[in-house]
Write a structure and sequence with these properties.
By secondary structure, the protein is mostly helical. The protein is built from six helices and no strands. Helix 1 packs antiparallel against helix 5.
Length: about 140
């Protein structure tokens, strides 16, 4: 039962990440190609919009059953903001490295970087820190 729930939560989180990510990536292209911003600035702006979408879906759909609303939104939002700042920094630097060092187009470098950042940084921190299960809350509810 626990494993099935963990897989379901992971899949839900991937949907949230996909929706936030597709918004983020699409806006990055628009800001870079249409508005002619440098892609590192585009990532900053688009990442912020994608993060708002991701946070909302995670809080109200993915992790609501695990953490309930016992954890104040301000605490979750603060932690999420720190994760997003780290994520945007890693994505910007990673994309820049792919572009400058390996001569990879920024759009491809961004996709490669996103894979590593999403699974190795974002998901573990969002699940285990931002929306961490409140064990005391779950025990009380299950009785």
């Amino acid at each position: 039962m626990f494993r099935k729930k963990a897989i379901y939560t992971f899949l839900q989180a991937q949907i949230a990440a996909f929706l936030g990510g597709i918004t983020d990536y699409g806006l990055m292209i628009v800001f870079t190609e249409v508005l002619k911003l440098h892609f590192t600035f585009s990532i900053l702006i688009s990442g912020t919009v994608g993060a708002i979408i991701n946070f909302s879906i995670n809080r109200f759909w993915v992790f609501k059953n695990q953490s309930g609303y016992s954890s104040p939104i301000n605490n979750q939002l603060f932690k999420f903001t720190l994760v997003v700042l780290g994520s945007i920094t890693l994505k910007s630097v990673g994309t820049l490295i792919f572009q400058k060092v390996f001569q990879v187009d920024y759009r491809i470098g961004r996709l490669i970087t996103d894979l590593f950042v999403s699974y190795g940084f974002n998901y573990p921190l969002i699940k285990n820190w931002v929306f961490k299960v409140n064990e005391k809350h779950n025990i009380i509810e299950s009785n």
